[in-house]
Each structure stands twice: as structure tokens, then as C-alpha cells.
Amino acid sequence: MQTRWENETTPGIRIGEITFGNPALKGHTCPIIELSGAEAGPRLCVMAGIHINEASSIAAAIAIAGDFDPRHFRGTLSIIPIVSTHNIFKYTAVSPPSGDRDLHWSYPGNPQGTFNDCLADALINEWAANADVLVDMHGGDLDERMARYVVIQSTGDPEFDARAEAAAACFDTPLVVALHASAMNEPGRCCTALAARRRIALVSEAGDFGMADPDSIAWHRNGIRELAALLGMTGGNVREPRAQQYLDQYEWITSPESGIVEKAFKPGDWIEEGACIGIVTDHYGREKAAIRAPQAGYVMMQKSLQFAPRGFWIGAVARPRG
Ligand SMILES: [Zn+2]
Questions:
Q1: Cβ atoms of residues 209 and 267 within 8 Å
Q2: Which of 99, 111, 156, 237 makes a 20 to 30 Å CA pair with 277?
């Protein structure tokens, strides 16, 4: 990995561009913003723009360095606000983890694999290699409406899981997807890959429909501010831990038939297993099938699409642990 730094924008905050040594990533550059505190301390890495349309998370990542005073900061805050620069102007949408897996589901990656495998590998093994915590910010592709939540990976190791849960509690939400330890056997989100090495990463999700909205931007930024305080990087107060629910099974809601999808669920709703949460109709409004909840839990996200082929994902539901 190489970084070409420009001049400091303000004392302690520099900007630049990073490139990676893997030949498969030749020509791929990412902007980087790095805040170096007056004292040595932890390294907090924050990335966004894995999914190029998730505007609130990108806007938050661009802004967060300005939330801190380098003179009263310990350690380093390193930010890649736009990872998937190759998708700028392409409006490439998030893809489900099955099938044509996108970068979000490709960790730990593979330096000999596809472009996404190589980029996943470079992000966690080069740029974030020494990160005390890695935050991967997301939120609401062009066709997605999200609940606000955090994803962490549970391991069954109580000491590690408690630290990951403390990091999640920095984000203002009652909903934490704490993926079941069995997920660690598969490629997945960055939090899954790093947890297998007993290192902490979390995914923050807030935003809707590719719009940069002030509340979602503030939600991501506040989470990072509290996380920096928790890590002892600022003199800020560490909040009392929030009451959070841990959800360990994340399932897709899919369309049972091809047709027009009429959804009767929205992010944050509680739904019971098997409950009717909408219908699919034909082009004359006649019901073809009921949409059933695949499991009990909270609706985490909803797709906006009106027409769905059979089996297509139209939302996600996460079930509480235990
Ligand atoms: Zn995303």
C-alpha cells in the first residue's frame, strides 16, 4: 500500500490518495483522510463507500475528521470515505451475498482472487492491519430503506464478545445484529473476518434510498465520536451503555411469486414467523400469493422495488438471540 499525501488541510489532519501493491488492484485509488493526535494512542479505521450509493455514510465519513481537535486527540483516525471509487458514476447497487458476491460479503478476501477478493484483502491486511477497531459505514442503497443498526460478529469468547458489544453500544440504536459464531466459517462482512482473528470491526447502517440525510449522517458521526471516547482517544465522556438487543439470525425476506409486490412491513417493525406481511399481485391487482415472514424478528431493511421476480429479496429480518 502506498499513500501520496497532500498538504495538511488543518494542523493534524492530512488528506491523500492510497494505492495498493496487488497487481489486480493496479490503477485503483481511494481518497484517505487521516487525523494524527498530539499523543500516540489507538488506531481507529473508518471506511465508507463500499456501496457507492449509500450517501449518508459517505457524507459522514468525509466529515468526521472535522469532529475532533488533533491537539486533544490520542492516536490516529484513518478514514477512507470512498472505497469503491471504480463504481463512481456507475450507480452499482448492493448485491445479495449469494450469487455474484460484492465486496461487502468478500472478507477476508484473497490476494489471488477476484478484484473484490483482492480489495477486501488489501483493506483489512494492509490499510487496517493495525486498527484497534475498524468501522465499515453503510446505509440505504438507491432501492433500500434501513433501520438504524450495527452489525458485529459473535465468537463465543465472552471477553471478545463483550468488547465488540461495547463498541456497538456507541451507536444510538436498540438493534445490534450480533451474528452467530457459526457465520465465521464463511466469507462475509469485515466484522466476521476480523472476529476470527479476535479483532473488532463493526458495520454501521443508517440511511435510505441513496439520499444524504442529516439525521443519518449525524447518527454515524455521533457513533464514531463515542467510539473514539470509548477507546480513550478523546477526553470525551464515555456514555452509559445503551440497552441493546442482540439479533443473531439475519434472514432475507423474498418474493414468493413474480409480480407486483405490495409490502405491509417497514424497517423497525416486529413481525412473527409466517405472518402475512404483504401480497404479490398480477398486473390487474389480483392477488397471486401472500408474502410470509421467514422468521420472527425485527425488519432491518426493505427494498423499494415494485416488480419482483420469484425469490428476489425484498427485505431482511433479524431474530433476537436465544
Ligand atoms: Zn451497504
A1: no
A2: 99
Q: Are residues 125 and 269 in the same domain?
A: no
How many CA within 13 A on the CB side of residue 46?
Answer: 28
Grid cell 453503510 in the structure block, residue: 138
Protein residues near ligand 1, an ion, with CB under 5 A: 51, 54, 138
Q: For 41-69, what is each residue's pLDDT tens digit?
A: 999 999 999 999 999 999 999 999 999 99
Kindly give the distance from the C-alpha atom of residue 119 to the centroid of ligand 1, in angstroms, as a whole number.
Answer: 16
Q: How far is the CA of 54 from the centre of ligand 1 (A)?
A: 6
**Residue 229 scores a pLDDT above 90:** yes
Instruction: Decide: helix, strand or coil at residue 286.
Output: coil
Together in a domain, 205 and 306: no
Query: How many domains does the chain divide into?
Result: 2
Give residue 285 CA to ligand 1 midpoint distance, Å.
Answer: 32
| CA–CA distances in Å: residue 229 to residues 42, 95, 194 | 11, 34, 22
